């Protein structure tokens, strides 16, 4: 807010002021007075927000975190289990305001002296974040030096400040740090005492519209236009739209925006829901020939206490709310001719978890789980002495629903549907077999379309089945070991090995319960051991070993099919991007020979493609050489390359090059390894290296 020396003098002046309205306001406001002297220290986080998938260097999410001392930072998970701070937005925004003289535009009146308490308050409130939210990923076109156009992804982060201003940061993707910031614009919302923020994103006739929904602690809710001049194909509102204007002193706690399809109007629409006290305010926005139609109302009679948390399943529009007394409401929107109505039903967590207090809820991306933060409730009319916070998982879908959704998915990516695959995994581990209906449906899908997504789904099922047949470990694998005095850090399952950490780890529980009959209180380890005892009693170990060998053979066959399909893709890229007799770093001849080495593999597409490539190569082989002894590295195995002197190099599963360096990447589930891109790699090889795992769809880092 000003030079350090001047700020320190002003703080001392306000703290010792004879005017109690100044001294008491200053001493009790933790924004001005973060150290707080005798007050509790400002540790922890006030709010956090996840970006969409595909924003960091590994194609995963960025995390915007707002600390209790009002510092807004962005973090990324660049290496496994390692979070890195990329940028401090509070510091950057403060520098921008300092350069502008703490004015939003040149026409503003000159600001007063820092020694004036109102000016001191103003400078703090204009850069004290209240909420921040990420937009969806939008695409811009960038013109290169040779007049070629390339699509560049960008994402927006809106930050709502205490004085009602909104800073909209634009980041180029992948976000790497300060250098990826494209712009920062500040919008005046005109909302007093703002409490919550959400993006409004609406698509009408292939035209994308955006805006920001702002809620106030006094009650009003409105949409603010956001002018995205740099983003092609995006439009905004001409003026703000007031969704609720009554100053009824019901604070807006949470806002969710859900895109839906209106079955009667035959067009897309936008449903905005906001938690206001114990009520849910809803607003249906619909663009017609007459303009923007707005229908709004409140849903009452849901909770006897104020709503503490709200979440929404964006796939079907279902909204979940909870109050602190352990009651969760499920609201299902049903369209009428004019607008819509809500059907709601009560989910009593006390029937599943016993007497609990709820502090927050969240629904998983595909709606398979509801995560609930709970503490112990009252027992015999008494509050518990200690609070133990737990994250409980309630299943919202049955195994059959999850399997059907995975089979009919338009996403066709297992990693993006990991909550659905977890339900399927849990069922197979419990029952120790793949249900017949799922096997038949999957085989039909593979026969009809042959998409590699269904082959990856089949591989996932076979691997879980293989895991369920194996003997369960006698010790819990995630629990730190007390025996190892020294352990290599890279191999250790967890960084903390002190007694305090172990006690803390065992006290944090995550229980998985179901609302239906499927899987109430099932212990996977116990069922695995029981089934093994049963199998050893009935038929001995030999049938189990034969079954495991059979599943292993099926796994290898599916992996080989996926490898061949990816090899064809790599060869296609080689053919499209190389000249005659050009040496690429990809072992093209070795991949061609590997594909044609199996007599049982008869793929006409592969034969034609290989014929064209060999004609282009003009009898050249371009083999890889061992960097240690310069001997030729033959292509005999898709996973590793071994030279005649016995030096072994692992192969990159994305380009099939040998990784002859000490650093390489692994996929999230440790299926495969991949090399890092190098500066001399052409663009098409760098593009191949950005792909996910060909076996499990996981990102590689």
TrEMBL record:
Chain intervals for the UniProt region annotation (Disordered): 488-543
Domain Transcription factor IIIC 90kDa subunit N-terminal, residue spans: 6-397
Source lineage: Eukaryota, Metazoa, Chordata, Craniata, Vertebrata
Polar residues composition-biased segments: 507-516
Name of protein: TF3C4 factor
Domain DUF5921: 398-475
Residues in Transcription factor IIIC putative zinc-finger domain copies: 618-668
GO MF term (any one): histone acetyltransferase activity
GO biological process: transcription initiation at RNA polymerase III promoter
An example Gene Ontology CC term for this record: transcription factor TFIIIC complex
Coiled-coil intervals, chain numbering: none
Protein's gene: Gtf3c4
One Pfam family matching this protein: TFIIIC_delta
Listed InterPro entries: DUF5921, GTF3C4, TFIIIC_delta_N, TFIIIC_Znf, WD40_repeat_dom_sf
